[in-house]
Amino acid sequence: MTAALGPVGVGFRSRRRIPVTIVVCLAVLAVALLAVLLGPLLFPDATEQDILSSLMPAGSPGHPLGTDELGRDILALTVAGAASALVGPVCVAVGSMLLGILLGTLAGYERGPLDFAISRWTDLLLALPVLLAAIVVSGVFGGGYWTTVALLILLFSPSDIRIVRAGVLEQAARPYIEAAQMLSLSRWRVMFRHILPNVSSLVITNAMLNVAFALVAFSSLSFLGVGVPPGTADWGRQLTDNRAIMFDNPAAVIVPAVLIIAVACCVNLVGDWLGQRLTRSGGLA
Amino acid sequence: MELENAGLIEIDALTRVLDVHSLRILVAIDRTGSISAAARSLGFSQPTITQHVQRLESRLGTPLVARTARSASLTAIGQLLAAHAPRIDASLTAAATELARALGHRVGTVRIAAPAEAVVGTIAPALARIAADIPGIEVRFVEAETDEALELVRSGRVDVAVTTGAAGAPGERGQRLRREGLRSTFLYGEELIAVLPFDEMPQPGVRVEASALAHLPWIFGDGTRSAVVAEAVGRTGGPADLAVSRPDAALALVAGGVGVAFLPESAFAAAPPAGVRVLGLSPALSLRTVAVTLAEASEIPAVAASLRMLAARRPSGYEVEALADARRRSNGHRARFARPIALATLPRLQEEDPLMSATSRSRIARAGAAAAGVLLLAACTSGAAESSTGTDTGEEIDHISVALPGSLSNLYVGQEAGILNYYIASITQEGLVSVDAQGRVQPGLAESWEQTDDVTYVYELRDDAEFQDGTPVTADDVVFSLEQARDETASPGLAYYLAGVDTIEKTDENEVTITLTAPDAAFAANMSSGGAAFITSQAFWEEHGGKVGTADAMLLGTGPYQVTEFVPDSHVQFERVDTWWGELPKVKSITVEFIPDESTRLLAAQAGDVDIAFNVPLAQSTQWEQLQTMRVEYVNDLSYVGLYFNTSLAPFDDPKVREAFAHAVDRDAVVEKLLRGHGEAATAIMTPESLGKAYDADEAREVLAGIPQYDFDLSAAKEALAASEHPDGFEAELLTPSTGPQLGTAAQSLAENLSSIGITLNVREVPIEEWLASLDASSSYGAGMMWYFSTLGDPAEVPSYLLGAGNPSAYSNPEIDELLAQAGTESDPAARVELLVQAETLQAEDVVNVPLWWGQSATAFGNDLGFDDYSSFAFISSWPTQIYRTAP
Amino acid sequence: MLAVRVLGTAAILFVLSIIVFSMLHLAPGDLVKTLLGTRPASPEAVAAIREQYHLDDPLPVQYLRWLGGVLSGDLGESIRLQTSVSDAIAARLGLTLALCGLAFAIALAVGVPLGVQSAVRAGGVLDRAGTTLGVIGLSAPTFAVGLLLLYVFAYYLPIFPVYGGGRGPLDTLYHLVLPAVTLAAGLGAIVLKLTRTAMLRELDADYVTSARARGIPESRTRRLALRNAAIPIVTGASLLLTFLVGGTVLAETTYALPGLGTLLQDSVLFKDLAVVQALTLLVALVIAMIALLADLAYLMLDPRVRAQGGAA
After folding, report:
1. Distance CA B569, CA C114 (A)
2. In this model, does residue B537 exceed pLDDT 70?
3. pLDDT in tens, C178-194
4. How much is the pTM?
5. Structural domain total, chain B
6. pLDDT, tens digit, 9 for 90 and up, residues B660-711
7. Interchain contact, C12 vs A124, CB within 8 Å
8. Is A49 in the B-facing interface, judged by CB distances under 8 Å?
9. Is B873 helix (H, G, I), strand (E, B) or coil?
10. d(Cα C94, Cα C256) in Å, to the nearest integer?
11. What's the domain range around B654?
12. Nearest CB to A136 within list C23, C206, C242
């Protein structure tokens, strides 16, 4: 991929050492990825109940992290729950990012009526009560996992669109774009090969944020009948379900909460680092 | 003009001349008949009195006392003045007593006159109570029969006269009394009982016609009330009639076969002697016992307090079985202050208390899971009233803070009829009747009532009831309130309870008559604030155009607390008023805070911001129990949770499929593990407490366990499924409400069990509104969770909803309909339960509903608060009156 | 141009109202059942209630009835609360506005300076600490933050009240501190991140290098950079505000605050049409205004955009 037109960054592409923190984060994410891929294989029976072993505290024989109200092992649930917890939010973030890139670039570059329409569309989406959308979706389409992903992509997209649009607006005013236009490059080329890389840092940052938000959004929608049904192996769902038994087996709440926070943190930190690298090397602000 | 002024000036001058002391003197002279005797009775010397009278006579310019050599009597003018004296005296005494109180002196004297028979049951306990609770009041008592006692009150020589008279035409009597400047306060009513020799058995049954006994010798006299009965049936004296002055003498005579006697209920201190049979009268004759005072005297704080104490004591004694039948009648007073009348079979409440002391109760609560523990807990908490820890210090409580686990958008129960709305509305509003700790109907705004035939109810209202704004409660207000409650557009939440009502009419100044379109054995309790009766003033309703219960209008009721502020979704504020007819409660103001988030509520309690917390989530109960400053009490809350099937949807139209589900439910594990033992595995739709009128706790459970049961047996479930038309299993969806997490976990447990026999049950948690919408025969869900809260505990309530017309299961069984219809009209509780048990047996055979558990709810109280009679029915009547401050 | 904008907004509101109306109709739940509760209802009762609220009229008629009311100034009546919608909203508006305003102010006041400093000394201690805290603030679910704050500041160190909106302006502010901080935690983290990223980009730009080379004092250079960074920050911040409007629900629930968030939530679940419409349109109006203000801000801040013909 060639660098964007315009003044090339001063100097060589320095290959900096990857900071320790980032290494740790990448390791955490790798483990999470493993859990996502292997979890259902390692613990196929995670959701099996055993009501007689209900509410055993962490450290009980056979249940290092204890059990929940219905006797399900917390460790098994957590490992098996990685998939449900992470795949959906990542899809939401990616989907929203793609929508944002497409519509935001069009709006910011083309301006005129297209920009008007897209901007008003985002206004509309933002004004729509999330709750209402969620229950209608659950009522009309059933409350499945992927329906929820689609819903959240739709609801998260305005933020990406807006951010991309603003970034594009700002870039479009720059001389190198003027130059490109004078060269009669097709506008798609200008948009996606020249402007986009320069906006990428913002976009990636926001996408990482969205992963974290989507994680939480999934579990908060659960009481409405959307997203994940009760009893599923899913960190967000476990967090909601087990609030009631917080004091009987704290691990049931703390473990998924810590994992959500940890993964989100790592994603954000890695995202930041990536953003910095994209900014400093190659593409120019 | 000048003439008028002159006239006014003259009267003004006269008032300045008249003084209380002079009036008292005139009264004393009138009574004693001589000046010296009068002087003695007043504690002055004779010359002082004479001088005083002479001075008054010269100022008024007219003689007041006619003196003869030995005696003195009042002239016409003197009589005129003396007639006013008692009332003026009373007013001034009231003022003086309040002044003394305000100045810090505790002073008050109350003089009571009553007949001898009333001493044991009414006077003595009341005096004891007054002495205990209101120190500083001096009580003087004199025995006097009714007429004499009334005369004493009229002349101002006693403050309170307790009198007994035949019931009937009370409105007229009340008017007469009012004209004389007297006021009556209803204490209690009782029926007259016929006492016959054992071998005189005119006909079978529990009642007898008095006229049928006319041929026998009757025993009259002061010890009996035979005279009243004789007058009522028009029997003139017989040759062999006797007269005695004491009830026990009369009883002895009857036992000896000498004749029959008619006694009031309270005459029986213990079971009647052998050789004697007691029967009710048909038609029933009752006596009303009232306390009569001068209208002004009732303002005197000491007198007012004494009146309340008198009203609170109900003579206890042997309850005649005949009169414990289902015919509705007044039981006397707010039973919350009285120990309920002990049926011969139930243990007395006082004996139960040591069993349920504080430590043993919390130990049981913590042990929780053991099956024995569950049973013990169920037995101890089932319906029976418990008094809470600590003795009553009698202190006033300035303020209590109540935490509600949800939010109210409207205070009027007709608009929003959730269980929490009932709890809050009952603080400030009342019905015609109230419900006591045993779930029995007691007087409320109606001091008595009669069911004159099987569809007609006549309610006699208290004449001293007032709304919180001071306006009196009239029969028109009652009729109006009930008509609004009946209207579905004005009160969608209450209209159902009044669907069977035909007419509501004011039939006398203080009387309301209600007729039904068909007999309904459950109707009487519906006239309480646990049902559909929330009496408000017509003027208030119309002033707000029918939009009551909102932040602007709030509520106007007759209860002891008035709503002073309501912010929907935030809080409600109540202040105590003195317009209530009952005893002044100890709590002065109440704030109810809406805190839906359970963690926040727990934190608030930990921070000490909460005095009472309703409906503590059972899953958090351990945490609440560990709070230092609060304790948790559990009670069966009359709620029912079960599975129900929509028999019009495949595959649930197949009884074998339903049977498979029924065998897949592990009730005991659910109760033990998911409810932490706070609940009871249900054997039927009706809860044991709802059978309380016919059976005690253990018997009720036996009766209900006789209904066909489906044990937890997965192989039986598998067999049933194999025998059905879907032997390979299928997939179905079940909704659970998000406000009931325990239903969700129970459903998950069921789903797990079902998956092992090939049925996939997808459990979906939805908001409560969506869940409510699915409770319909037209919904597309074949299996559902039923969660029903009953406020009044009528046994037919839940079965009618689940099995009768329009039930959510689309289930139509003509036999059951017939049984339900019969149960609706059957007045004998045991027979009624029998009919309902039959209906339940039929539905169990069809497996339309699978009972899961009978619920318990937990309430947290601050350790410095005590609560009288905490029971399943505690919170649907004026419950703040039962709160007291305990000794630390 | 402004007129076009206004017309556009009006068009949105109209379209939005139709969408919301249809969605409420489609949503599961039944107004009649919600009013009646778990009691059986006679067909007459159901018919009477449906009649009372015009539920049997054809949908367009119901919609037009509502629209007619709004255009003549009557926002309608809340079925759940039995008061006029304007009263219901007015009673809670102040609290929600105060909460949002406070949270936004805190987020900006903490996030922007921290973001700038982090960018200036990229990789330094402050940067790392700020980023980490920020990331945690972002990733933790709101209710967890709320609970934590409650435990620490209302229970262990009883400085703040546990719940409720308080009475009186000063007391209300006092009650709102914890909820505002809860909300500001996530928001502030985003602001910090945005500011930092934007500042980093600007500080790397040519004109900064040349400014430094020319000897212009650092503080002035930074100010210059900040002005340019302002555009994405302003975009992000305006977005934040709109999220805030929707996101107060969680805070209101945890702290038992009777605000607009809970009103909207309860009304949606109850299917209380008039309230949902009024609130949604209000939110849309606010968002449109904020977008307009943001675009105007570009004009002020970026002369290049001004030259290009201004905002759409």
Report:
1. 38
2. yes
3. 888 888 887 888 788 77
4. 0.70
5. 4
6. 999 999 999 999 888 888 899 999 999 998 888 888 888 889 999 999 999 9
7. yes
8. yes
9. coil
10. 15
11. 636-855
12. C23
